[in-house]
Design goal:
Blueprint (H helix, E strand, L loop, with lengths): L1 H30 L1 H8 L6 H15 L2 H13 L5 H14 L1 H7 L6 H19 L5 H32 L2 H9 L3 H15 L2 H15 L8 H12 L1 H7 L5 H27 L3 H10 L2 H20 L3 H11 L20 H31 L6 H24 L7 H36 L6 H27 L2 H30 L8 H28 L3
Helix pairs in contact: 1-8, 3-5, 4-5, 4-13, 4-14, 5-14, 5-16, 5-17, 6-11, 6-16, 7-8, 8-11, 10-12, 11-12, 11-16, 12-14, 13-14, 14-16, 14-17, 15-16, 18-19, 18-20, 18-21, 19-20, 20-23, 21-22, 21-23, 22-23
């Protein structure tokens, strides 16, 4: 009965640790989402900067898997090259060791437990009474998560120790496992299940501490740690399924880096069988700190060895993952980025503009078909409109997948604005559809428009295209000059509409224009003017929410 209680308490501690780990990861990722995106895009050609960014980002969000999956998403979305991604992945492996290093300092005293219970209490208090300050509440959750991690670590340690000491046969069985490959496989599988090499390394530290002076013989415990570094690649490999060729290559580079590093250290540990006791324990005293420092130095040394050869990793990945003859058209939406609200919405904005490009292309094609009285273009125009609608639906489906806890009030406000932007740009597609109907009637009734009218209409459409370009530039650069240009274009489009309608009415009075074409012409000009209105709505809406 006692042993069952120890197991249940151990599982409770493990649950506390993993929940705390998840809370910290999610909240830090949300708080630092914008910063992470900017840092990842500033890697440039400096490999050391890339390693530093990868290490720093992972140390903050406490998960190399999350960082790597995010990098795979950036490469898939075309925001980062393979050459830029490789040093970041190497750095991520270094950053993930921070968790184990922190946990190695937790100790096992009752006083330490009370300290971390107070972390949970303080964090909960901040979250409850943080009011409308989303960032303050977020840091409160980070504080609570840290307390949960340390408390869980202590519960795991004490109860695993009690369980092992209460059953000599189990203790002997664990100690008897000395096969390096079996131990590496065990570390790999555990990490693939938990999705975190840091979390499994902490469990390994707990196990070794619980075994006490007996411990896993020789370097056995270190083989488990090597397995965790290979296991952490599993999530990234699965996340690359269905992505672009470059994204698949990114996950392959991650696997190659960890696999080669583990093999090098495997050979070293097999040759120097007393490395754990003779060096690590002698230097660092406790098994927890010895394992945490091995985890750190393993990743640091591997990054130092492989960084100069990062371009070779890129070339090998291209040999393993061949170029596709036809790549699917690039979408900016990637499920790997959906858990970070700030980054996910920045990708949504890019996809929104991609949709706008498609609708604007349909508008231009519909207008040209009208001018040329080409009714045969309708099928092609409607294919473009359908494509825009599918992108629209894809954006909506993607936004719905963003977790509620990844959106603060500011980001939620932007989500609502995005839905309205989608509706406005979708209207351009509807206007293109209206133009196809005007073309059909023009062809059917053999309506004729003068060359002067066609020239004036062309000027109006070009002005709409200029306005769209200004709006697009404003959304991507935030430069106020583009907002001013968009507003100026809108005024000119309104004046053009008034002028075109007034001139048309004058020609009707003078008998210079066929009355049968009047309905088509006025509706056409009105539709074009509304296209400008919807573009204006998007730029003006962004003007009020541009803080991103």
């Amino acid at each position: 009965m006692e042993q069952v209680q120890y197991i249940l308490m151990f599982l409770s501690g493990l649950g506390c640790f993993l929940i705390g780990f998840k809370i910290i990861s999610q909240n830090i990722e949300n708080l630092a989402g914008k910063l992470l995106k900017k840092l990842f895009q500033k890697t440039g050609k400096n490999k050391l900067v890339g390693v530093g960014i990868g290490a720093g980002a992972t140390a903050v969000i406490q998960s190399s898997t999350a960082t790597t999956v995010m990098v795979v998403g950036f490469v898939n979305a075309g925001l980062m090259t393979l050459a830029q991604a490789t040093p970041i992945i190497m750095g991520a492996n270094i950053g993930t060791t921070v968790t184990a290093l922190l946990m190695s300092l937790s100790g096992g005293s009752g006083l330490t437990s009370y300290i971390f219970i107070s972390f949970i209490a303080v964090g909960g208090f901040i979250n409850l009474f943080g009011g409308k300050h989303e960032k303050v509440k977020g840091w409160g959750m980070v504080c609570a998560g840290l307390g949960l991690m340390f408390l869980g670590m202590n519960l795991c340690q004490s109860n695993m120790m009690n369980f092992i000491n209460s059953n000599e046969s189990i203790k002997n069985f664990i100690v008897s496992i000395t096969n390096p490959f079996l131990l590496m496989l065990l570390g790999l599988v555990l990490t693939a299940v938990v999705h975190s090499s840091a979390a499994v390394t902490v469990l390994v530290m707990t196990l070794q501490s619980a075994l006490g002076t007996t411990g896993l013989a020789g370097n056995s415990v270190l083989f488990l740690v090597l397995g965790t570094n290979i296991g952490t690649c599993v999530t990234a490999m699965f996340s690359s399924i269905g992505t672009s060729t470059s994204a698949k290559r990114t996950s392959v580079i991650h696997l190659l880096f960890n696999l080669l590093g583990s093999l090098i250290f495997l050979v070293f540990l097999l040759l120097y069988r007393g490395f754990y006791e003779d060096v690590l324990l002698a230097l660092f005293g406790t098994s927890e700190l010895a394992i945490a420092m091995f985890h750190f130095f393993f990743n640091l040394i591997c990054a130092s060895i492989f960084l100069p050869f990062s371009n070779i990793f890129v070339k090998v990945s291209t040999l393993i993952i061949k170029d596709k003859e036809e790549e699917k058209e690039q979408s900016f939406l990637d499920s790997r980025l959906v858990t970070n609200g700030a980054i996910a919405l920045s990708q949504v904005k890019k996809e929104l503009l991609r949709m706008g490009d498609v609708y604007m292309a349909s508008l231009r094609m519909a207008f040209d078909a009208f001018i040329n009285k080409d009714d045969d273009k309708n099928v092609e125009i409607h294919e473009l409109i359908k494509k825009g609608s599918l992108i629209n639906q894809g954006i909506v489906d993607y936004i719905v997948k963003i977790p509620n806890d990844a959106l603060n009030k500011e980001l939620d406000f932007k989500v609502q604005a995005t839905y309205r932007d989608l509706a406005d740009l979708d209207r351009i597609g509807e206007i293109a559809d209206n133009l196809t109907k005007h073309t059909h009637k023009t062809v059917q009734d053999d309506l004729v428009f003068s060359d002067v009218v066609k020239v004036d209409l062309e000027k109006m459409v070009k002005k709409i295209e200029e306005q769209y370009t200004s709006m697009k530039n404003y959304l991507t650069t935030k430069e106020p000059i583009y907002f001013i240009q968009s507003e100026d274009n809108e005024e000119e489009i309104d004046k053009m509409r008034s002028s075109l309608v007034a001139d048309h009415l004058e020609r009707l009075k003078a008998g210079k224009c066929n009355p049968s074409s009047s309905g088509v012409f006025i509706n056409l000009v009105g539709n074009l003017e509304r296209a400008g209105d919807h573009i204006t709505f998007v730029s003006e809406r962004y003007h009020t929410t541009k803080k991103d």
